[in-house]
Amino acid sequence: MSSEGSPIGTNLADVTDFSGEWVFVDAFKQSRPWISGTEDTWEDNRKLDLDEHGWVRSLAPGQIARTLMFWRDGLRYPSGNYVIRYEGEGTIQYFVNERVLESRRGRDLLQVDAKKGGIGLFLTSTNPKNPLRNIAVIMPGGACKNDGLRACRSDVECAGSSCIPFERDYRERIFHPDFLRNLAGYSLLRFMDWTRTNDSELVHWAERPLPGDARYTTKGVPIEITIELANRLKSDAWYNVPHRAEDDYVRGLAELLRTRLGPERRIYIEHSNEVWNSVFNQSEYARRRGTELGLSKDPFEAQLRWHARRSHQIFAIFSRGIASPRLTRVMGSQASNAWVSSVLLEHDGAGSRPDALAIAPYFGGYLGEPEAERRVERLTLDRLMTELETRGLDEAVRWVEEQSVVAGKHGVDLITYEGGQHLTGVGPVIDNVVINKLFDAANRDRRMFAIYLRFLERWRESGGTLFVHYLNCGGYSKWGRWGALETPGQPRRSAPKYGALMEFIEQNPAWW
Q1: What phi and psi, each to the nearest 5 degrees, are found at residue 383?
Q2: Are residues 14 and 72 in the same domain?
Q3: What is the pTM (predicted TM-score) of this model?
Q4: For the domain that residue 465 is a member of, what is the CATH number?
Q5: Looking at residue 348, what is its pLDDT?
Q6: CB 108, CB 57: distance < 8 Å
Q7: Tens digit of pLDDT for each residue in 201-248?
Q8: At which of 140, 159, 187 does a domain end?
Q9: Quick one: three-class SS letters along 321-362?
Q10: Is there a domain that residue 166 lies in?
């Protein structure tokens, strides 16, 4: 499926050891940050001696460095023989999946049964003069030579072509074919979670994560890796500048995107994420900065005006090196509050103006609020689905209509930075077993397919353009059911949200 002309983009889930999505051919890139312990203690909170990329340089007497992959109850991931490649001298032990079929210097062959649980990898010794490093945990199988989006275990699966084992080209291949295939229909990828935008501490460009880092679960996925993904999928790319980032970070990001991202790929640039939302540190930071600058006597309005001012400054830096047709400058706002959008778009700060107003019109969020708990836990699945289709969609569409008026007044496009269903508990409701089961069932119900299609149709009818869903793939839990897919290998027919997004793409080329 080609993404050319697709009206739908997607957010990518944060890269973690428990996410349920296998992104990389080298599973170590998704491993948990090192845990210091001993033979008798799982975690002793001692500091580990790490190099600049996160590899263990030395171990204290009796110290063990542990890490975990695919570590969540019920997580589905590929079983098979995993190849562990490494450099240096030391001792590696394995946990849960611990059967080593072959071992020679620099290479182990580990038999993995996903039904047993995840993969634990422990460093019990390392030579400080030649430490264990560049560890790769290469997933089983390979990719078809004639189709890089098709995973295989043998040539038979490749329709006359050959199956290239991952071990042969894991450094260059980078991404698992299952991950790539599920993204192929989207026109845009938003990297907000991949780059750890929320609550970010990044200030300077030199502090960013790098491709040579041991794993991408500590500081986030490097910008260079996001560019490689967008180029391979021929998709547009959306980046969020951390709220603390100084101009040197902005200039470095702009230059890297200008020179590395394919020239036909559009760049969407946004200041932080949900700066209006008090859940995140960027909200308080913006409030403090706006108040210090005297942008308004009202603290919240001062917060919004600083967000607008900093956005304009970022847009100006990007506009100096990237031509306007290739650059979309995004002002992020609050879907349920058109006044917020008006304040942001009316602010006359220094720098370039935005091209798009972005909101997150989720539907059904009120069903997880504490005041609705007693009513919702008595709902049948049928009644819940009916309410989503009526009251839930009507509320979200009303927000869209109000925001469309504001966007039209200021001559900018209306897009989403996130959107979709929002069935998740808030506060104490997050632990309500009855409601969690109901919300799980609703997301897996075939009627969600029709609700999603209708929501997207009404988004278009109400003046919206690009719709960026939240998010591509993620296992369900009490923290939310955000994934269009629950696992990368999930058949489309069993994933109603993903099926609806793909059908809408197939039937509705971009209309703007």
Answers
A1: -70, -35
A2: no
A3: 0.96
A4: 3.20.20.80
A5: 74
A6: no
A7: 999 999 999 999 999 999 999 999 999 999 999 999 999 999 999 999
A8: 140
A9: HCCHHHEEEEEECCCCCHHHHHHHHHCCCCCCCCCEEEECCE
A10: no
